[in-house]
Specification:
The structure is a homodimer. Chain A is an alpha/beta fold. Chain A has one domain: Ribokinase (UDP-N-acetylmuramoyl-L-alanine:D-glutamate ligase). The first copy, chain A, contains ten helices and 13 strands. In chain A, a hairpin with a 6-residue loop joins strand 6 and strand 7. The first copy, chain A, starts with 9 loop residues before the first strand and ends in an 8-residue tail after the last helix. Chains A and B meet through helix 7, strand 13, helix 9 and helix 10 of A and helix 7, strand 13, helix 9 and helix 10 of B.
């Protein structure tokens, strides 16, 4: 599926990190993590026209960058600077339904200033991973005329950088957040009402990620519900949302258009990649996929929600 | 949609009750409630071949029984005995996401012994609402050869009457419970694994109701996900699961077959009726519907999950 010539270019800005994760399957240290690591890998299954901007410290293993490069991802925007790589330490509840952050060591991420190279400034699709909204806005000042800008954010920025976040939101097309973040941002529990409030802040579409309840797209008065695959083996939810975003944006780059129909299909591709991501730790769930396996899970999701349209 | 002649007969056994409900929209006293009240009303939109077995006290307003009768429901099995009608008092959290039981006064329900009349014993579809599993089993001893027996249950019975529940489960085709009940019954958080365990207890299919995350059907290794309508106005979740069950079973009675395809459509009809139920208090949300409004929401749910099947 890489051979199509009309692929749009996708620029991904996000974190590249190490994660230490405790949970029902034990303690795992120094796992590859970070939003850009999941997004770029998931997107690379759909298009070779992906470039990443991020930062790592001098402790970061070069092999992870080389792996992305081998997938066709332009890694020239991943800068290496002296210091420690961003490090997240978290613990999941025994049932994996909740998690808490035990430690966050920003390291080189503390002074990260995304620099978009000349050849990346004409990117047609831009995905702003979950970083400081002021940095997200700075990226948008550097790109020229992207057809679609999507962004993620998190509770931290909603709480402590709301003004910066609102400025950035006013400049993006699509916001992708989880249900708790949507409620927090809108100060409204009901998701449909929360969506209506958020769509007044700038974005023309909102994607609410709901874990094993799937994802909802709201735009222009309409809605789309992408199912989640009911999985028997869930090991690590870390990166599921980023894998979803990577699959979605990668498919949009591959499909070459942004019609509502294509966006719905892209949501399903997002759900496919998210479902693979949670089955293993780190990026392992999306490491060695094939087009056939991706197609198989897409078909399974199709079958999962298939029903006959009847008239009473 | 009542005119089809091949309608199967549906027997509903459950509670008829008064509810006092506190929550974000104030305190509402003496609302019509009970599983059978929601189930029969929802089912009656699809078929006139519904009969109800239940019990009320001498405080119960006759008008509610007359209303069901006017919908074509056979209410001859609703017995009236001296004493207080079953009364549930509950309080919802401000965001409606959780509820607690403040008081349960069983009243005449404490000595309820379902008596299935001769003309009801050949019912082709049987829906056992959430009552003591020993009583559910007693109903199954009285009916002859139903093509489909579905049942609901709740945390209380799973906790204090597990042995009786397991005996009843071994005799039914379909169990319909919510996600928390499925986890409790299977002693397993993961819903796919919980489903696999529950399907070893007797039922050939399991329907897990997940509120605004929709409903999942598991049977014979396969799965179906029915979406929930994202609603802006949710007033009272009471009876949503029973309305879902009534819509589902009513549609099955109407359709006249139990093929996997028909069951999927029936799940969507269940979701339709559940979505109407939560928009108003008591049975008001499913009180004055028309075939056109039901069809409209069915079509909206269809559109909600519609996407193009692509090949990569």
């Amino acid at each position: 599926m890489h051979q199509r010539s009309a692929h749009r270019s996708l620029l991904v800005v996000g974190s590249v990190a190490y994660d230490d994760i405790d949970g029902p399957f034990g303690f795992h240290k120094d796992l590859l993590g970070g939003s850009a690591s999941f997004i770029a890998r998931a997107a690379a299954y759909f298009t070779k026209n992906v470039s990443v901007v991020g930062v790592v410290g001098d402790d970061f293993e070069q092999k992870y960058i080389d792996e992305l490069s081998a997938l066709g991802v332009d890694v020239s925007g991943i800068e290496r600077t002296p210091g420690e790589t961003f490090h997240w330490v978290g613990r999941y509840a025994p049932d994996l339904s909740t998690r808490e952050t035990l430690d966050t060591r920003l390291g080189v991420f503390a002074t990260f200033q995304p620099k978009i190279a000349e050849h990346q400034r004409d990117a047609q699709l831009v995905l702003l991973g979950n970083i400081d909204p002021a940095l997200q806005l700075d990226v948008l000042r550097q790109v020229r005329a992207p057809a679609l800008v999507a962004m993620d954010t998190m509770n931290l920025w909603i709480n402590i950088k709301r003004d910066d976040l609102l400025k950035t939101l006013a400049k993006v097309h699509t916001l992708m957040i989880n249900d708790e973040e949507a409620r927090l941002l809108a100060e409204e529990h009901n998701l449909r009402r929360a969506a209506a409030k958020i769509l007044k802040l700038g974005p023309t579409s909102l994607i609410i990620k709901r874990g094993d309840a799937g994802a909802l797209l709201f735009h222009g008065g309409g809605a789309f519900a992408a199912p989640a695959m009911p999985l028997a083996d869930v090991k690590d939810p870390t990166g599921a949302g980023d894998s979803f975003a990577g699959g979605l944006m990668g498919y949009l780059a591959y499909a070459g258009d942004l019609s509502p129909k294509t966006i719905r299909t892209a949501m399903i591709m997002g759900s496919v990649m998210g479902s693979f991501a949670v089955e293993k730790f780190s990026v392992d769930g999306i490491r060695d996929l094939t087009p056939a396996r991706i197609q198989q899970r897409f078909d399974e999701l199709t079958e999962l929600v298939q029903f006959e349209r009847v008239r009473l």
